């Protein structure tokens, strides 16, 4: 064949493949396109390029694959090793060699060097020796199983997605939900509006005082758009079994004691049954539109409408534990369980950790059987730095058979934080890493993050409540999005811990390293390691069944160690 013709033919084939295949069926590992940004670095995706990692195949009992991400430029980098008694192996940073670890460790935090010297004198001794931490993994001791990892399709997310070219939207779906992305299996969404919407809204706002909900007979255009986006997501991510969790932020104002979207207001007693029917109608209509709901909660952050209204100015509806026990035990619970949707899971609380364990104890005291309707307990992470996981342990010990899910998390919500993205921030990624590690060590079955994507400002939304998201979309050129370190922090769990992975005993000898280990349904072990120090660390890894090895991991890095 003529060389030019051949070249043209190849080009045609390539184009054909990219037209019909991209990005939904391209099966390949593509590295991150790293870009320096204001606070660190991000991976840049465009319609024609985005980073993906195929799930490593482990072929025999000796093989180990270590997947690594680091402040210094690694993103899901794969390194092979084995338990066959080889010497220490070194995972190297993208932009440094093992030799320059020392220099990197100091340069990274130059402006805060005085602080480190004062609080961590160990740094002075860095040059001489790298610390060794022992970790031992015992798969004979089992704890909880993984059920869900996911994020939220809010009105704001849906609004941003709608504006993007299809290929770029597809890369967002695939990045989060495909096994070559980070393997999410769950989406959280709102029934009516939430704080990340263009305006507050609910079904049947009109006519008022309409206990029969006569005007709630079809899905709102905003939900029809979400359904369309979710259909596309399932196709692109090859995820027919996507799970959807839904929660209401507020009833229409006429059902509430204060007649408003926000502020101190609760559901009027005469509408307790109407509000249960409202949930049932939503389940009916979503199923009728091909998008059945997996779970609902008893309502987003019930305390916002009781005490939180001082600082929360978005849609909310207040509940005390007593009111919720009555509504759940006498209205919502029986309504759902006696309906065609009796299998839909019900989660309670859906509020901050500091409401645990008192919330459920008070519910039980008001109506003994109310909590029996709950399949799971939902917690938001926002005050986890202040309130410890013991609060969760207490309730888990009282109700060990209920699923435990973190159902909302983001950074940038606090007065002392940047309201909005800190593009590329490794520190924000580490914040997530520490939080996921802690929850998984405390019997959580999974975690649903907040907005899947936001714009450069951390919106849009009506309540001027700007926060960060693991993926930020460039809404100026609508041609790029940025995967932040937070995305890779979550991914080290969600990608490698499929549903039914069981936590196993993992113990660590030093505070420099945090770790949690799982046995997956395919029998492989996945251990997530986090080094938050500004220094490399030697990890002496021991598995009761496989043997030992030592690996050196870079400063400020996290890893998933996979082996059979
Ligand atoms: C630090 O390490 C370098 C390179 O290994 C070596 O040349 C130097 O002598 C060391 N300095 C101290 C104070 O140990
Ligand atoms: C039903 O709701 C729609 C908007 O959701 C509204 O435009 C319409 O007026 C309502 N119908 C009645 C009878 O109130
Ligand atoms: C978004 O794209 C515009 C135009 O290409 C560019 O000027 C801007 O820097 C980008 N935003 C970010 C956050 O990179
Ligand atoms: C109050 C407020 O900020 N509203 C904005 C929310 O987002 C939409 C869409 O970008 C804007 O049009 C609104 O001005």
UniProtKB/TrEMBL annotation:
It comes from the Eukaryota. Pfam families: Glyco_hydro_30 (PF02055), Glyco_hydro_30C (PF17189). Residues 1-27 form the signal peptide. The keyword Hydrolase applies. GO terms for biological process: glucosylceramide catabolic process. It catalyses: a beta-D-glucosyl-(1<->1')-N-acylsphing-4-enine + H2O = an N-acylsphing-4-enine + D-glucose. GO terms for cellular component: membrane. Keywords: Glycosidase, Hydrolase, Lipid metabolism, Signal, Sphingolipid metabolism. This is Glucosylceramidase. The lineage of its organism: Eukaryota, Metazoa, Ecdysozoa, Arthropoda, Hexapoda.
